[in-house]
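sorry to bug you again but im stuck and you know this stuff better than me. what follows is a protein written twice so to speak, once as letters and once as structure tokens for the fold. id like you to explain what the token line says about the fold, in plain words if possible. anything you notice is useful, everything is just below.
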Amino acid sequence: MEFRGLFLPSLLLFSCLTATCYGMVTFSSLHRTLVVTASPTPGQVLKAGEDQITVTWSFNQTFQAGTDSTYKTVELKLCYPPISQVDRAWRKTVDDLKKDKTCQFKIVAKPYSSSDNSCTWTVERDIPSATYFVRAYAYNSDNVEVAYGQTTDSQKATNLFEVQAITGRHVSLDIASVCFSAFSILSLFGFFFMEKRKTRASQQK
């Protein structure tokens, strides 16, 4: 019994040390100290490869001065809200940020500044059709997440916008396809013409 009483606390201590060594960071442990806004209006549909998003972010001044003293870089990401995660395990939200699939698309990463930050980003061509919001993560000098901010509420249900993925073929591909088809037809006619000439020549001999 004595051994068991010593074993369990030791096991818990070992687990905590293991988690620390591997640098596990949970989203629930982060404070929302960044104020983030994005240009799309709620429900707006953006076209991938064409439309742009302007994002601004700053430190929330309601927090105590010096709270952001360890912030070194900020990374903006395009993220899936629950409405775009239904029946899609590959977009699943997990508290462990190393396993979390909520934010899969990087917008930009910049050195941290407490105010007057903004960037304009063209929605990339490979962004899939879905509903999105923007989240910012603040990282320390060890590149570990220490804080965040986002354009939606804690339930990820407000200020959402949509992206419409590129569908169909590109115009240049259509032109290339037509040219290739025409070349193939001409080549076929040329082949039959040459064969016919060879046949006539052999018959004349």
